[in-house]
Amino acid sequence: MSPEELFWELAEPMLADPAITRSTMMGLPCLRYDGRFFACLDRREQALIVKLVTLMA
Can you tell which superkingdom this protein's organism belongs to (predicted)? Predict the structure, then answer.
């Protein structure tokens, strides 16, 4: 299985949420939540890129 196939296989359960969509960012496959990027696959480096946020208390 290629890294991209694995990325989409892992993403499949999340795509059941209508707020999460398949997309691209700078030509890379990515996932968006309410239109904002939160995960993508860097094909060249075969690396998962995930956006982390700081929670304010």
Answer: Bacteria
Distance, CA of 3 to CA of 49 (rounded, Å): 13
With b meaning 16 or more CB within 10 Å and e meaning fewer, what string describes 14-42? eeeeeebeeeeeeebbbbbeeeebbbbbe
List all residues 6 or more positions away from 25 whose beta carbon is below 8 Å from its beta carbon: 37, 40
Tokens of 17: 């949420």
Mind listing the pLDDT tens digit for each residue in 18-56? 999 999 999 999 999 999 999 999 989 989 999 998 887
